[in-house]
Amino acid sequence: MTRVSFYILKSTQFDERQAFACRLAEKAYNQGHQVYIHTDNIEQSLALDEALWALRPDSFVPHEMINSDTDNQSPVLIGHTETTPPRLMDVMINLTEQQPLFFSQFQRVAEVIDDNADVKQAGRQRFQFYKERGYELDTFHV
């Protein structure tokens, strides 16, 4: 069964959520996991793509945006549609305000929540959704 972890940030800036998601993706990649990062739209996907390239000078996280023109074989994929990723992956990092329909195909789901009122409220709803369905939940205050 999918294990869901909520990471609660003190910031209200999307850039901080994005930076945390990049560090989380790097950690999961370094542990040998296949990571899918789910965003709201193409603009967020592009911004995340840039942020992963600029993560740290001594870091490299091989990644790509999901594209039907390529084989999407990078260990970290970024997408923003409600379409299932093109292959099975271990970890999903969710930066949207809803749980994607396909979340249960992942072993781990990371929900990144900041101190923005709308983001927190949506996070509470997702937490309740997962809890009511019996998923194993963790909460980490970052």
Provide an overview of this structure.
With 142 residues, the chain is α/β, with parallel strands linked by helices. It is 32% helix and 23% strand. The chain is built from 3 helices and 7 strands. The protein has helices spanning 14-30, 42-53, 117-132, and strands at 3-8, 35-38, 63-65, 76-79, 91-94, 108-113, 136-141. The two termini are 25 Å apart. The model has no long low-confidence stretch (mean pLDDT 94).
Helix/strand layout:
Elements: E1 3-8, H1 14-30, E2 35-38, H2 42-53, E3 63-65, E4 76-79, E5 91-94, E6 108-113, H3 117-132, E7 136-141
Parallel strand pairs: 1-6, 1-7, 2-4, 2-5, 3-4, 5-6
Number of strands: 7
Helix content: 25-40%
General shape: globular
Count of alpha and pi helical runs:
3
Q: Could you list the spans in which at least 5 consecutive residues all have pLDDT below 50?
A: none
Written as H for each helix and E for each strand, in order along the chain, the element string is EHEHEEEEHE
* Biggest sheet: strand arrangement: 3-4-2-5-6-1-7
Head-to-tail CA distance between termini: 25 Å
| Secondary structural class | alpha/beta
- Beta-strand percentage? 15-25%
Please state the average pLDDT score: 94
The biggest beta sheet is recorded as: 7 strands, parallel
Alpha carbon gyration radius:
14 Å
Features:
142 residues, alpha/beta, 32% helix
Quick synopsis:
The chain is α/β, with parallel strands linked by helices and 142 residues long.
